[in-house]
From TrEMBL:
GO terms for molecular function: oxidoreductase activity, acting on the CH-OH group of donors, NAD or NADP as acceptor. GO terms for biological process: fatty acid elongation. Pfam families: adh_short_C2 (PF13561). Residues 11-187 form the Ketoreductase domain. The gene is gno. SUPFAM superfamilies: NAD(P)-binding Rossmann-fold domains. InterPro entries: KR_dom, NAD(P)-bd_dom_sf, Sc_DH/Rdtase_CS, SDR_fam. Belongs to the short-chain dehydrogenases/reductases (SDR) family. This is 2-deoxy-D-gluconate 3-dehydrogenase.
Amino acid sequence: MAEALFSVAGRVACVTGASSGLGRRAATVLARNGAKVVGLARRAEALEDWRAEAGGETAAVAGDVADRSALGELAARIEAPFGAPDILIHAAGINTRQAADAVTPEGWDATLALNLSAPFFLSQHFAPAMQARGWGRIVLFASLQSFRAFPGGIAYGASKGGIAQLARAMAQAWSPQGITCNAIGPGFFPTELTAPVFADPDLAARNAAQTCLGRNGRPEDLDGPLLFLCSEASAYVTGQVLMVDGGFTAK
């Protein structure tokens, strides 16, 4: 009974940022649990590496989800292998780490375009198919910086604060039609995006000490929360940010 509750078998999922980091982990977990997964990222070769690692029924789509002018063509390629997705995971992201006095218009625009605008407009495109089925799961990636201010995090923090509100706003708009919209808020996990943090052992240790569990995240810590938010187990959960941070934001 519990296994069926958390099942994603037979569902069609699209994961942005699937070539690396937590997006790759999410795409792999869904594929290994029976979903048909379209991995989307800009690096075609890295996506093929992911497919070889994940196994299962997968497809790779190389493209820039932040290029709004090409959204229709990109969405058509996402739909081509398995049909319109039941599950949409927005894991693609960028962090320019520019200090407040050094933020450039280009850095600001690139951060907001990929981290905040792209998740909304891709969701908007696929929402009608989910509404027609009466079932859908949209999972955004929030951050510790959705709620905390970090050095060099003006643009990134603004985008991730926006993600928390986007989850609530999309839930208000689309959940009456059976689409749940939630966000996962990871703590410090070792990924390409957080490489500068983990390159400093003292900083990584301080971050670990800030959590209730006394350690930083491991890739497998994402698996359970992700399956929860993508399955029937979370049918009555929408508009929420689930912090997967070892208790960092609890202290």
